[in-house]
Write a structure and sequence with these properties.
Pfam families: MHYT. The chain is mostly helical. It has seven helices and eight strands, in the order ββααββααββααββα.
């Protein structure tokens, strides 16, 4: 049944997509934790390739892909599409802010509390910026209002999650510990997302706003997985190349 003008729209969630959004966040977090340990060389100089990989893993897969896959799980009684420009800008913002936060927390290969705190604040606020940009990219027959208290709670969750993730990224060495850390981080990112979505009230309007370029449809979740898959392949290519270079260097020193 078509919703009435002025009606409060009640969302429903696709449980399978909620689970998949968590799994993709876990995968991105694990890749980021693996790459972050090699961001700085032994002399303290920055390895740009690994830095970009870590930023793309955390921001592009762990946060952005999780967000838009979870948005596909968010169902209203009106069709939803997305502003392509805002969607693209949110991806760039998530990767750029994640990279800067990882750089600050890494401290040229020496973990420092001041850099960690600054990076945590930046990463947490950056996750909020990306999340709410993604929400405002929604194009539908509804106006959105946000509950300030719930938005604040989501920001606190994001900052605390970022602080935990950055500390773990530069202080854990064993793979099993990193897997556990990625599971916790994905839970925190997902919690921030769903708390943020809970802050939104959608009131039905006559028409959706006109925008020049939009994306949507039944294949958006497939598109998100395609983006995450391409990023993952690029990251594996860089990591494999670094590993081969290190093995060649070790063989030459023997």
């Amino acid at each position: 049944m078509e919703p009435l003008l002025g009606q409060l729209l009640t969302p429903k969630y696709d449980a399978a997509l909620v689970l998949l959004s968590y799994l993709i966040s876990f995968w991105g977090a694990l890749l980021a934790l693996q790459c972050a340990k090699s961001m700085f060389r032994k002399d303290g100089s920055l390895d740009w390739g690994m830095t970009i990989c870590a930023a793309a893993s955390l921001g592009g897969i762990g946060i952005w892909s999780m967000h838009f896959l979870a948005m596909q799980a968010y169902r209203l009684s009106v069709p939803i599409s997305y502003d392509a420009v805002l969607t693209g800008a949110s991806l760039i913002a998530a990767i750029a802010i994640s990279g800067i936060a990882l750089y600050l927390a890494g401290g040229h290969g020496k973990f420092k509390a001041s850099g960690w705190l600054a990076g945590s604040l930046l990463a947490g606020l950056g996750a909020c910026v990306m999340h709410y940009m993604g929400m405002y990219a929604m194009n539908l027959r509804a106006t959105m209002s946000l509950n300030p208290a719930t938005v604040f709670i989501s920001a606190v969750i994001a900052i605390v999650a970022a602080a935990a993730a950055l500390w773990l990224a530069f202080n854990l060495t064993q793979l099993l510990h990193r897997v556990a850390a990625a599971l916790v981080m994905a839970l925190a990112v997902s919690s921030m997302h769903y708390v943020g979505m809970y802050s939104a009230n959608m009131i039905c309007t006559a028409d959706a706003p006109l925008i020049p370029l939009k994306i949507g449809g039944n294949y958006l979740d497939v598109s998100v997985y395609a983006v995450a898959g391409m990023l993952s392949l690029c990251i594996f290519w860089v990591v494999l190349g670094r590993s081969m270079d290190e093995n060649k260097l070790a063989d030459s020193l023997r």
